[in-house]
Amino acid sequence: MDDEFEPEGQPPESGRVPRGAWTAVALAAAGAALLFTGIRGCSEPPGGGYVAVVAPASVPAEKYTTLAQATTFTSIPAAAPDQDPFGVTDGMVVHPMTPQIVYVSPGGKPIAVLPTTELGGPTWVPVVQSSPGWDQVLLPSRPDRTTGWIYTYGSASGSLMVRSSPYLIWIQVGARKLTIDDSGTSLGTWTVAVGAPQTPTPTGRTFLLALLAPTDPTYSPLILPLGTHSNALSTYGGGPGTVGLHGWPNPSVFGEAVSNGCVRVPAKALQLLSRIPLGTLVMISP
């Protein structure tokens, strides 16, 4: 979230880029992700037998229309906080091919709808926990590091595309370092710029939310918004205070705490980040 990054005037329901300055960039590395196959939502425990799948609560049409869209522009106060904000997942990410109702718990209260698109591109979110017939995912909305459950059993599984990202992005705020891992092997570590003391970069696990390219770039050819927001700024430039990764024309900032919360990265790191699948986990440690 730096300078002109924040989009303006975006209606929460649309999930699309609010002004002509941005276009969605195709995900170059999508083919590298492995598609999971097989039946999901039924589980056989080590002792044998099957665990019953909890059915989702019924959502009447009039209730569905009142649910908030789970986007970077919305707040979902009823969402449950992430119980393991620094835990590494197995890399599973999901894309809703149709809008998915998000529940506070398996079989619990419906709290939001996860749309198919986010900021002009496909919505991909990481799975942080699974239960028979359900996946718990990180949400891109405020409050930060909140979660919701999506029903995945039976016919519902056909509405989700499921893949595995082998990548993990580590950001060490105190050390001003960014590391990209591929299946546990480091692809490189770079010195970066992080949030200034009065506008710190938020910590905890989040994910790559979108890949954007300004049609008339001023400070970065690409911007990767994350599923997290500034804790110091409720809004910025008319937008919701979304934090992202992006480049910077002056390399003297790398190693400094000078941004409005975003992480400024060198050109080589930005190029590599642009090829990593959306939904990939980003771990931001103090």
Short summary:
By secondary structure, the chain is mainly beta. It contains two helices and 24 strands.
Q: What descriptors fit this protein?
A:
286 residues, mainly beta, L,D-transpeptidase catalytic domain-like, 2 domains, seven-stranded antiparallel β-sheet, five-stranded mixed β-sheet, 24 strands
Topology:
Blueprint: E1 22-24, E2 34-35, H1 61-64, E3 68-69, E4 80-81, E5 92-96, E6 100-103, E7 110-114, E8 117-118, E9 121-122, E10 125-131, E11 134-138, E12 146-151, E13 160-164, E14 167-172, E15 177-182, E16 185-191, E17 194-195, E18 204-207, E19 212-214, E20 223-229, E21 242-246, E22 257-259, E23 263-264, H2 267-273, E24 281-285
Parallel strand pairs: 3-7, 14-24, 17-22, 21-23
Antiparallel strand pairs: 1-19, 2-13, 4-12, 5-10, 5-13, 6-7, 8-9, 10-11, 11-12, 14-15, 15-16, 18-24, 20-21
Please tell me about this protein's structure.
With 286 residues, the protein is mainly beta. It has two domains: 3-27 and 166-285, L,D-transpeptidase catalytic domain-like, CATH 2.40.440.10; 33-43 and 50-164, no CATH class. Helices cover 4% and strands 35% of the residues. It has helices at residues 61-64, 267-273, and strands at residues 22-24, 34-35, 68-69, 80-81, 92-96, 100-103, 110-114, 117-118, 121-122, 125-131, 134-138, 146-151, 160-164, 167-172, 177-182, 185-191, 194-195, 204-207, 212-214, 223-229, 242-246, 257-259, 263-264, 281-285. The chain has a seven-stranded antiparallel beta sheet, with no helix packed on it. Strand 11 and strand 12 form a beta hairpin. Residues 4-45 have low confidence and may be disordered.
